[in-house]
Amino acid sequence: MADVVQLRKSEGNGLLSEERHDAVLRLTLANPPANALSIALMEALSAALDKAAADDGIRVVVLAATGSLFSAGHDLKEMTAHRADADGGRSFFEKTMRMCADLMLKIAGLPQPVIAEIDGLATAAGCQLVATADLAICTDTSTFCTPGVNIGLFCSTPMVAVTRAAHPKQAMEMLLTGETIDASTAKDFGLVNRIVPKQYLRQVVDKYAAVIASKSPEALRIGKAAYRAQAGLPLPEAYDTAISIMVDNMLRDDAKEGIGAFLEKRMPEWKGSPE
């Protein structure tokens, strides 16, 4: 197994730290206290995800954060400063929302599974980030909210991810009230998978990441894309899509190797497995 490899800070801005351990890439929002999704931070995160997508050696990506907030969402100070622009800030607001949407689409479309590691408050676009990740594991003191309605700004873009992760009425409850929910409620709503004590968060996330990273890289890529492809389809079309994908998967090298290894009662050797 490879040693831990520390990667460089993103583009010299210090907003995002990168750390790689074997086939797991950890991206940590490093702009406390708010870890706001400013233009600079979104650019850094987007660039890091592009590199991960192009690296066949990376099988899992973890999104974490420093400080007491996972992310406070958009940088409202940055956005408010552009109200002085000639168009009242419209162009900058459109740029911010489009960049955030593109970032969420990039996470959803990333070949590798993405695990959100949350310790603290995830609010507005920060909650959107959690809802967009494939899996989410949080501490028992973490909290979540979509509070835009409290400041006259309905969380319409976070709504897209939240309504796809949480149950419909619970998602609307969050969006309409703007109230903060605790970790247990977030799990009941469907926003997070697991709740763990703070001292065990990194250990549990690392374990999940390692288990997933041990699987076939082909199967992980195919499976994540297949899940997204069928999720919004009517049932017959979903099965048609899944059949086509699974037949193609059966013809791939890792399926041949995995099934052969199972029948022969040995460990599989995945194509491109790290040394």
Give the tags:
single chain; 275 residues; alpha/beta; 2-enoyl-CoA Hydratase, Chain A, domain 1; Lyase 2-enoyl-coa Hydratase, Chain  A, domain 2; 2 domains; 7-stranded mixed β-sheet; 4-stranded mixed β-sheet; 11 strands; globular; disordered N terminus
Structural description of this entry:
Strand 2 and strand 3 (24-29) form a beta hairpin. This protein folds into two domains: 4-213, 2-enoyl-CoA Hydratase, Chain A, domain 1 (Alpha-Beta Complex); 217-264, Lyase 2-enoyl-coa Hydratase, Chain  A, domain 2 (Orthogonal Bundle), CATH 1.10.12. It contains eleven helices and eleven strands. The strands form two sheets. Strands 1-2-3-4-6-8-11 form a seven-stranded mixed beta sheet, sandwiched between helices. A four-stranded mixed beta sheet has the order 5-7-9-10. The protein is an alpha/beta fold and 275 residues long. It is globular and about 65 Å long. It starts with a strand and ends in an 11-residue tail after the last helix. It is 48% helix and 16% strand.
- CATH level 1 name of the largest domain: Alpha Beta
- The second-level CATH architecture of the largest domain is Alpha-Beta Complex
Model regions low in confidence, pLDDT < 50 over at least 5 residues: 1-12
The major beta sheet can be summarized as: 7 strands, mixed
Distance between the termini: 6 Å
Provide the number of structural domains.
2
Mean pLDDT: 93
- The CATH topology name of the largest domain reads 2-enoyl-CoA Hydratase, Chain A, domain 1
Helix run count = 11
CATH superfamily assignment of the largest domain? Answer: 2-enoyl-CoA Hydratase, Chain A, domain 1
Structural class estimated from helices and strands: alpha/beta
